[in-house]
Amino acid sequence: MTASVAGLLPDSTGHFGKFGGRFVPEALIAALEQLDAAYRHAQADEAFQAEFGMLLRDYAGAPSMLYEAQRLSTEVGARILLKREDLNHTGAHKVRNVLGQALLTRQMGKKRIIAETGAGQHGVASATAAALLDLECVVYMGEEDTRRQALNVARMKLLGATVIPVTTGSRTLKDAINEALRDWVTNVDTTHYLLGTAAGPHPFPALVRDFVRGIGVEARQQCLDRTGALPDAVAACVGGGSNAIGAFHAFVPDESVRLYGFEAGGDGVDTGRHAASITGGATGVLHGARTFLLQDEDGQTVESHSISAGLDYPAVGPEHAWLHETGRATYEPVTDAEAMAAFKLLCRTEGIIPAIESAHAVAGALRTVPALAADLGRPPTVLICLSGRGDKDVETAGSWFEIL
Amino acid sequence: MSVSKAFSQGRAALIGYLPAGFPTVDKGIDAMRAMVECGVDAIEVGFPYSDPVMDGPVIQRATETALAAGVRAADVLRTVERVAAAGAPVLVMSYWNPIERYGVDRFARDLASAGGAGLITPDLIPDEAAEWIAAADEHQLDRVFLVSPSSTDTRLAMTAGACRGFVYATAVMGVTGARAQVSEAAPTLVSRVRPVTGTPVAVGLGVRDGAQAAAVGAYADGVIVGSALVSALADGGIDAVRTLSADLAAGVRG
């Protein structure tokens, strides 16, 4: 694996090996081409990059801190570094992506954004960026989620967004994506689809990755500054996979750094109730890309299950599929129970309430410590992407631990 | 049997869509055979799929019903076989993942042996279709890709060049569903496709009655009707499908 290989992907048609590509109606191809051109232009445009950098710094709070979790480190026998994306404005790494895409929307001369959301985090982030840049914002959200996440619906409305409950299909995140795609096909001249993760048709996986890859770029330098060396491992949770690809990408050329993506194992992969697309799925096409997905023998998408709404998605971004296939990154499931144990451990040892998504990364990272230590002959340095904060999850956690 | 037969009658061909398995597999077959008897020239059999991003509410509801009843690939192929036996060319319309999962070459082989004419692929563009194009050649199947009002001239030529049987022109920017007015973008799109291909051009998305079919048939080689037939079947059963089919068939026959 060399830097140049990592930097060249995807190829010009959006493929990471056999993954990625564009599996969408022809009606969307023109918009994807326009987006690709705008994105390429923005990458080389100093004014765009300066504005993006200013917003990340002054508005979102980047670079997020790298915090050495000393009590947790002592507890588990490793040096644990937490990349504090949970301290960003809106409470997660997602603000990086929405700011980048909202700026692109303005550059393309479009006035309206649409977004999908599961629990509401990406919807809130999209509504935030839309308010900031004076764009109309429509968020598609599964009907059941609008009830379960009434507070996030209220947040989006406070920020001026319209929230449309989705009543088709399984009424979950994947159906919210379907509805957003239908809206986009119909209104593509005026509308940008602000996709919330590093998935979907080309150029979304590359574009979202590049807007969030600051996570890893910052963390790599922060780790060098603090420890004088690269970490032995980088760990992140993987649903669609945006925080993970953001954390991994700068480290892909560093062969000594092991990359671990932790998927939502739900009740356990062997129970069939999980969201582990790589571990428990198969290659196929969903939402515009070839990747790993949960599907039945006929290629029908199977519903995913996870305690974490942000990981509850039956597919994964195509670059993760490729990193898995090449062996550069390792993907493992973490069950609901393991994630909640790590959630509690982080609360009690560090005074940090993580998003349940991020608790999957903590749980998985801690699980790898004994093998890493044995392999290296010393306590390993493990960098964990703490992708979001847990305010939104207090009700779920309170119920899990039977304190509410 | 290629679909080309449907386009060689000196008038616009009428192509009717219903999903397999709606309201049941056998009733769906009966409805499609009734369409053929009432003058529909070719049948599109929809392969029900869990995530139909190109479809509006009418077809979504019908395919959800079919999936909830457990419709499988074998039911789609049985529908093709029974409807083809009625004498009209039959194409399958499917989102890509069910075909890829089944096995592209295997599906092409089984579709051909069921007497199917070919496959319409709403979310597969020729750029990603090398395996399907080879399988279609191997099994002598028509392959129908979609063009859109937003397609560039370059893409129109490339896509039309990859089509065999006909070119599917989506008349409006949007999902499937009957509309009060037939799109004004459609004649323009057809006139842009004609110079780049000798393959017939059929227009779909929005046609609901004989008058609209006649209007589209005046400038296109084929008229595709989907949601209106699905609504007819859902609301009025096979009798309503017969009435609408006869009206549409009279429309294309002027």
Automatic annotation (TrEMBL), chain A:
Name the family: Belongs to the TrpB family.
The gene name reads: trpB_2
Assembly information from the UniProt record:
Tetramer of two alpha and two beta chains.
Q: Which residues carry this modification: N6-(pyridoxal phosphate)lysine?
A: 94
Can you provide one Gene Ontology molecular function annotated for this UniProt record? Answer: tryptophan synthase activity
Q: Which reaction does it catalyse?
A: (1S,2R)-1-C-(indol-3-yl)glycerol 3-phosphate + L-serine = D-glyceraldehyde 3-phosphate + L-tryptophan + H2O
Co-factor requirement: pyridoxal 5'-phosphate
Which UniProt keywords are present, listed alphabetically? Answer: Amino-acid biosynthesis, Aromatic amino acid biosynthesis, Lyase, Pyridoxal phosphate, Tryptophan biosynthesis
What positions does the domain Tryptophan synthase beta chain-like PALP occupy?
A: 62-386
Q: What is its EC number?
A: 4.2.1.20
The UniProt function text for this chain reads:
The beta subunit is responsible for the synthesis of L-tryptophan from indole and L-serine.
This protein's GO cellular component annotations are:
cytoplasm
So, what pathway does this thing act in?
Answer: Amino-acid biosynthesis; L-tryptophan biosynthesis; L-tryptophan from chorismate: step 5/5
Task: Report the domain of life of the source organism.
Answer: Bacteria
Q: Kindly give the Pfam families that the UniProt entry links to this protein.
A: PALP
Q: What is the enzyme's main class? A: lyase
Q: What name does this protein carry?
A: Tryptophan synthase beta chain
UniProtKB/TrEMBL annotation, chain B:
Question: What Pfam families does this protein's entry cite?
Answer: Trp_syntA
Protein name, entry field: Tryptophan synthase alpha chain
Can you name one GO molecular function term for this protein?
tryptophan synthase activity
Q: How does it assemble?
A: Tetramer of two alpha and two beta chains.
Annotated SUPFAM superfamilies? Ribulose-phoshate binding barrel (SSF51366)
The record ties this protein, via HAMAP family, to:
Trp_synth_alpha
* Cellular component terms per the entry's GO annotation: cytosol
Q: What domain of life does the UniProt record list for this protein's source?
A: Bacteria
Q: In which pathway does it act?
A: Amino-acid biosynthesis; L-tryptophan biosynthesis; L-tryptophan from chorismate: step 5/5
Keyword Lyase assigned to the entry: answer is yes
> Where does the record place a coiled coil?
none
InterPro entries membership: Aldolase_TIM, RibuloseP-bd_barrel, Trp_synthase_alpha_AS, Trp_synthase_suA
UniProt-listed PANTHER family: TRYPTOPHAN SYNTHASE ALPHA CHAIN, CHLOROPLASTIC, TRYPTOPHAN SYNTHASE, ALPHA CHAIN
Report the EC number(s), separated by commas if there are several: 4.2.1.20
Q: Which residues form the active site?
A: 44 (proton acceptor), 55 (proton acceptor)
Keyword annotations for this protein, in alphabetical order, are: Amino-acid biosynthesis, Aromatic amino acid biosynthesis, Lyase, Tryptophan biosynthesis
Protein family: Belongs to the TrpA family.
Catalytic activity annotation: (1S,2R)-1-C-(indol-3-yl)glycerol 3-phosphate + L-serine = D-glyceraldehyde 3-phosphate + L-tryptophan + H2O
Summarizing the function annotation, the protein's role is: The alpha subunit is responsible for the aldol cleavage of indoleglycerol phosphate to indole and glyceraldehyde 3-phosphate.
Q: Which gene encodes it?
A: trpA_2
